[in-house]
Amino acid sequence: MNISLAHKIELKPANIQKGYFVRACGTARFVWNWGLAEWNRQYKTGSKPSGLGLKKKFNAIKKEEFPWVFEVLRDANSQPFSNLQKAFTNFFKGTSKPPQFKKKGIGDSFYIANDKFKVEGKKIRIPKLGWVKMTECLGYSGKILSATVSRTADKWFVSICVKMDITPTTCENQAVVGVDLGVKTLATLSNGEMIEGPKALRKMQKKLKRLQQSLSRKKKGSKNREKQKRKVARLHHQIACIRLDALHKLTSKLIRKYSVIVIEDLNVRGMMSNHKLAKAISDMGFHEFRRQLDYKSSIAGVHVIVADRWFPSSKRCSCCGEKHSKLKLSDRIFVCPTCSFKMDRDLNAAKNLEMYPELIAA
């Protein structure tokens, strides 16, 4: 089975190398914005623009009008057209929103093709720059497809995509587990184990508020404002890393211990529309949990079953099977009106999820 995975590694560039990264990101951002503006202009005139057509037009004029794009690698001014074509294709399919213009400092990155760079140990060779130190070695072995250099806060990262041919292993443990995700506890397992989430955003809310208030008082365009922006970005990055670490530990634990994992098909977008729960839900990272579980299970040979969105896991009694239709969100203890069975609401839902494969088979 072929699978593509990316290993994101922090870089340790020198100051001159940081300047090169900034110029490459600026070039990629400029080309994207130029292509998007030209696409919109041609579309309004009745033409049918394409990424390849825009690329040819840009290549014809870049030597005279934009000679500074030659200071960095070629992929920085060629790949944005492919990305733009893909973005509009997804938009016309209805799977994403229309492409937007990019702003400096937000999502800065540039692409490198697999034949343009080389990885040796804890360093990577980038065209027109040379060797750049990495904090760790590449963790995957296989065919290298591409690399993307990006910036988060004041740190630089390289994400190397590798295509591997793997044979899924057979899990010796045949245990089945139901996993109920929640806001109070990150995950409740059907065996009674409850895993607390780190709630990093909630714990650092006061510090984040203080930094953001200080940022709002800084004069726009000043160096002090830029310094404060980096402080806020570093804290956001720290919060994201804490959340990601907890989710990796949880998903790896589930993959090691169980051969069948049953989870809910949560409508995260709909849940986020509730302004009272949106912050707590985003702090848990439900979507990231599902993403990690999907790719790790495919490697380990673990079967992940996603219960139907309308399956009443919380309202169904795990003892007698009756549905408690009047159960409220504020009711944390499930009490069955038929058999008077009592259990924690999340644990009852997890047990129902564990029984889900048998219920649909029957």
Automatic annotation (TrEMBL):
Transposase putative helix-turn-helix domain sequence ranges: 1-47
Pfam family, one: Cas12f1-like_TNB
Record GO biological process: DNA recombination; transposition
Keywords, ordered alphabetically: DNA recombination, DNA-binding, Metal-binding, Transposition, Zinc
Molecular function as annotated in GO: DNA binding; metal ion binding
Limits of the Cas12f1-like TNB domain: 286-353
Domain (Probable transposase IS891/IS1136/IS1341): residue spans on this chain: 159-273
Family as reported in the entry's similarity comment: In the C-terminal section; belongs to the transposase 35 family.
Name this polypeptide is given: Putative transposase
Organism: Desulfocicer vacuolatum DSM 3385
Lineage: Bacteria, Pseudomonadati, Thermodesulfobacteriota, Desulfobacteria, Desulfobacterales
